[in-house]
TrEMBL record, chain A:
Matches recorded under CDD domains: ABC_MJ0796_LolCDE_FtsE
SUPFAM superfamilies on file: P-loop containing nucleoside triphosphate hydrolases
Function comment: Involved in beta-(1-->2)glucan export. Transmembrane domains (TMD) form a pore in the inner membrane and the ATP-binding domain (NBD) is responsible for energy generation.
Full protein name: ABC transporter ATP-binding protein
Single GO molecular function: transmembrane transporter activity
Length: 239, 412
């Protein structure tokens, strides 16, 4: 039986104001462990909003998000931060590395915040992660000494630091050239193949096609789900 | 905590000029506060020392604080009295020698008898009202610093000169008299006595030096027209600060009004309290103002680091941990600033202690009195550190309350 890593139940995110605006409108979604899911959709369709909800960066107006079977809607902000620290890894369109820190220090940041390992163990893991992403010789460089692709790989290493169950990536290749895009996407694919769940928002249909499942969002709702089953694409129109 | 300190350190060390300005602000605030505290307390202690040295610590007069209880009141539970006749009692403390020997048995200090009366000193056409205190020179040295305050002559000269008196320098200057001159003393019952100036003293308190003269007890008794009377006991204590407590005990034992130096100078001491309050307010304002530079720096850093704050929060760092980073930054600035402030404060105190000021009233040049106390450094440092932490807390709280999604969306 397939284990569900991430589940959204009737998820709604509404921005209240003079004119209320619904970003995410009643989405039901289950992502299995080790699955690579791509979320696509036009600008303003609510795909990033959905991603932030799935990664507990934002709280839903209605509905429930379960991470590894644990409901999260009633968690306090501190408890949500703990879940983010231990179970989720984030990669953003821009690397968002701390500019004063070296690559290694940036990778060590989540581990140090979690405080579960000794300094030696953390450094060992940090260097191993950077090495596995081809950045071994850039460990002591600061972000401004790295190329865009290298920075994004450091950001991926940082996201993997605490061995999270789920990697959430918001257009991680949006600011990269073609070669770096290919490299970053391959890394994310490998991560999923190694058993970690990856949910990625992308505008690139070619990249989305390489995911296990593509979820197309329109106006805050799932419009289409495309699955790669046995090497063939299976398309399901939801609404 | 090490992680937070590392992040904080990278922030402050990346802004050397801003950080130095903040540290300089704290150092100036702490340094000048220490200098002010040393100066104010130094001058106050110097003044009190002069006051305590000049006056007896406790004076016991032949008065009572309230009307004596009438014999009828002692006898009956309810008494109504009217037109109580004045009884002309002989002034003075009854059995002064036995009272003194009783006091000597328990007070932490010594006691001496004296005779105090008012008189007019008449010389060269000038008539000035003075307080004449008759003393026993052998006992006086036990209870006052008069012997040390002598500028001309000695206490023993009172016995050698005919009706000898010791006059304050300021009064002698006013009258134009010198040691060996004769002046006329006029007492309350028109008693007239030619007295010889046997010596001059200077207490340092102008009001004392202009109005107080000393003679032998016998001379003062003669001026009062009461031979053998002792109307005042003067006590000197090992610890002047215990005078209030001891005075209350003496009064309870003897029944005579016992006035401590604190009570005698209550008005003056209350002005010190007001002065202390003003000084503390000014010093607090100085320290608070010095922390504004820190506030400015932390505000700038939190504004510049909004994106980093958002990322740290999105990675799972708790809000209070992120807030603590900026408070640590402020404390780094504060601690280094305080260390420099301590050095600056000491140097300022040292420099000011070398300044001398001419007092036209006394005609003397005196150095500024500085009181060195570790407490000044600790308190100024502690308050400054609190101000710095407070100055960082508010911008940090505001900055860390931002929703990471808002920042990330804005940056994307």
């Amino acid at each position: 039986m397939t284990e569900v890593a991430l589940q959204a139940v009737e998820l709604v995110r509404r921005i209240e104001g003079v004119v209320s605006h619904t970003l995410v409108n009643g989405i039901d979604l289950a992502v299995n462990k080790g699955e690579f899911v791509a979320i696509t959709g036009p600008s303003g369709s609510g795909k990033s909003s959905l991603l932030y909800l799935l990664g507990l960066l934002d709280a839903p107006s209605e509905g429930e998000i379960m991470i590894c079977g644990q409901p999260t809607s009633k968690l306090s902000e501190t408890e949500r931060a703990d879940v983010r620290l231990t179970k989720c890894g984030f990669v953003f369109q821009f690397h968002f590395l701390l500019p004063e820190f070296t690559s290694l220090d940036n990778v060590l940041l989540p581990m140090r915040a979690a405080g579960r390992m000794t300094e030696g163990e953390m450094r060992e893991r940090g260097l191993a992660l950077l090495g596995s992403l081809g950045l071994g010789e850039h460990a002591n460089k600061r972000p401004n000494q790295l190329s865009g692709g290298q920075r994004q790989r450091v950001a991926i290493a940082r996201a993997l630091a605490n061995r999270p169950e789920i990697i959430v990536a918001d257009e991680p290749t949006g600011a990269l050239d073609t070669a770096s895009t290919e490299q970053v996407f391959s890394i994310l694919r490998d991560i999923a193949d190694q058993g970690q769940t990856v949910v990625v928002v992308t505008h690139d249909p070619a990249l989305a096609a390489r995911a296990d499942r593509r979820i197309h969002i329109v106006d805050g709702k799932i419009a289409e789900i495309t699955e790669r089953g046995g090497g063939e694409l299976v398309c399901e129109m939801v609404s | 905590m090490k992680l937070l300190f590392n992040i904080a350190w990278t922030h402050v060390s990346a802004r050397v000029r801003q950080t130095l300005v903040g540290m300089a602000g704290v150092a100036m605030g702490v340094g000048f506060t220490i200098m002010m505290a040393g100066l104010m307390q130094g001058s106050q202690i110097d003044f009190l020392r002069q006051l305590v040295d000049t006056m007896p610590h406790i004076t016991v007069d032949d008065e009572r604080r309230s009307v004596p209880t009438q014999p009828a009141e002692q006898e009956y539970a309810a008494v109504q009295m009217a037109d109580i006749a004045n009884v002309g009692k002989r002034p003075g403390i009854k059995y002064p020698e036995s009272v003194m020997s009783s006091l000597r048995s328990w007070i932490p200090g010594d006691v001496a008898p004296s005779v105090t009366t008012s008189a007019i000193i008449d010389h060269g056409g000038a008539r000035i009202g003075i307080t004449l205190t008759g003393i026993d020179p052998r006992r006086e040295v036990q209870v006052s610093k008069l012997a040390a305050q002598m500028r001309e002559g000695k206490l023993d000269d009172l016995s050698r000169a005919p009706n000898g008196i010791i006059v304050g320098e300021a009064l002698a200057e006013k009258l134009g008299v010198k040691t060996g001159n004769t002046v006329l003393l006029v007492g309350g019952q028109d008693t007239r006595l030619n007295s010889t100036v046997a010596g001059l003293f200077r207490s340092g308190l102008k009001r004392v030096d202009e109005s107080q003269i000393y003679s032998l007890a016998g001379t003062a008794q003669l001026m009062m027209g009461q031979s053998g009377v002792v109307n005042q006991l003067r006590l000197r204590l090992n610890d002047p600060m215990s005078a209030q407590k001891v005075a209350a005990q003496v009064e309870a034992q003897t029944g005579y009004k016992s006035v401590s130096w604190q009570e005698a100078n209550a008005d003056l001491l209350s002005t010190f309290t007001v002065r202390d309050f003003i000084v503390l307010t000014v010093m607090g304002a100085m320290l608070l103002t010095s922390s504004f530079a820190t506030y400015n720096i932390i505000s700038t850093i939190t504004h510049e680091k909004r994106q980093d704050i958002a990322i740290m929060k999105s990675l799972g760092m708790r809000e209070y941990a992120v807030r603590r980073i900026f408070i640590i930054e402020s404390i780094i600035i504060g601690v280094v600033g305080i260390l420099f402030g301590w050095i600056l404060g000491y140097l300022l105190c040292y420099g000011w202690s070398k300044i001398t000021i001419f007092n036209p009233l006394t005609g003397t040049t005196v150095p500024l009195q500085i009181y060195y106390s570790a407490m000044h450094y600790v308190v100024a440092g502690g308050i400054s550190l609190l101000c710095c932490a407070g100055a960082a807390y508010f911008p940090a709280r505001k900055a860390t309350r931002v929703h990471p999604v808002d920042i990330i969306r804005g940056a994307s």
